[in-house]
Design a protein that fits this description.
This is Ohr family peroxiredoxin. This protein has three helices and six strands. The protein is α+β, with helices and mostly antiparallel strands. It has two domains: about 45 residues, N-terminal domain of TfIIb (Single Sheet); about 90 residues, GMP Synthetase, Chain A, domain 3 (2-Layer Sandwich). Strands 1-2-3 form a three-stranded antiparallel beta sheet, with no helix packed on it. It has a three-stranded mixed beta sheet with strand order 4-5-6. A hairpin with a 5-residue loop joins strand 2 and strand 3. The N and C termini lie far apart (about 35 Å).
Length: about 140
């Protein structure tokens, strides 16, 4: 394996803190979502994770589309990251990736979506650890 890039982000204060990338591109205040007793209008770890996974996933979908000669340039993915309570002090994430690929039938879209999930680095990193559904729409 050849290292191509390393992202560096410093987090302070947990869910009520900040995240800042070494290059300054990301500089955000974090708050718990309102649904978890926090404040609406701020970033949180689940939003950041959903954004990162979605953009990475679409890159993988682009590779699959190129391989199969299917135009996926207008595809979108809505990534739903659930924060779930397992026990009194135990939590787990869940995910649904809702994939829309215009211009192709649903069966073919699901096959492409599943293939992208197999190759996406975020999907690989979470496989077996995060309950995930891939849903072509």
């Amino acid at each position: 394996m050849e290292l191509l890039y390393t992202a560096v982000v410093t987090a302070k204060g947990g869910r009520e803190g900040t995240v800042k990338s070494a290059d300054g591109v990301i500089d955000l205040q974090l708050k718990r979502p309102a649904e978890m007793g926090g404040e609406a209008g701020y970033a949180n770890p689940e939003l950041l994770f959903a954004a990162a996974w979605g953009s990475c996933y679409l890159g993988a979908l682009g590779s699959v589309g190129k391989r199969d000669n299917v135009d996926v340039s207008e595809a979108t993915v809505d990534v739903h990251i659930g924060f779930n309570q397992e026990g009194a002090s135990s939590y787990a994430l869940s995910a649904e990736l809702h994939v829309h690929i215009p211009g192709i039938d649903l069966e073919k879209a699901q096959k492409l979506a599943d293939a992208a999930h197999k190759g996406c680095p975020y999907s690989k990193a979470t496989r077996g650890n995060v309950e995930t559904k891939i849903i072509a729409e």
